[in-house]
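User: I'm writing a short methods note and want a consistent example. For Transposase, I'll paste the sequence; you return only the structure tokens, no commentary, since I'll be parsing the reply automatically.
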Amino acid sequence: MPSEMENNGKDDGRTFHNASNFKETRGRKKKLTPKALAILERFLESNGFDGRTIPWEGLPRAAGLDIEVSGETVRRAVKEMHFRKIRFSDECHFGFGPQGKLWVIRRPWERHCPDCIIEKEEPAEKDKKRLHCWAAVGYNFKSDLIWYNVPGNNNGKMSLQIYRDKILEPVVGHWLRKGEDFIVEEDNSSGHGGGRNGQKKKNIVKQ
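Assistant:
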């Protein structure tokens, strides 16, 4: 009997999970193909509010698709389609260098053993080292880690100028110039232009 590897290059009606030259036939076929979803997306973008007021079950026909699908199927597909565009972003901070407080778990009889008690001073704030980075993740997407420093600020609190100059213009702007379609999701911190900074007239991030 021929092995799977010998049949790998032949079209005998069978599908092998790891064979790149065979088309996957397992599972239920989707009622809305990627091509149909792209047509729906273009229709919603071009018609704006008027397109969004159409009932879910009538949306495919309004977009010129001759398919019969339920309104719930269309609703789930459109929701997933928009979710895939979102890129969730935030900052992250790492500490290294002289260690601060440490929790030590001792056995009961070692608690007052002189050889197990070590007195250690807390390192000065200037000796503690921290690294700060920004990143974004989404559906089938992962950005690079963007490292940054905030002059005069050791805790990595993002400033408007750093966010604009290190993140928005060189990174997010690069995605836009490449023609990528996405939504950047961020929190409402002051460094992102939110909070009280969002109420200022000279908010360089919002500008």
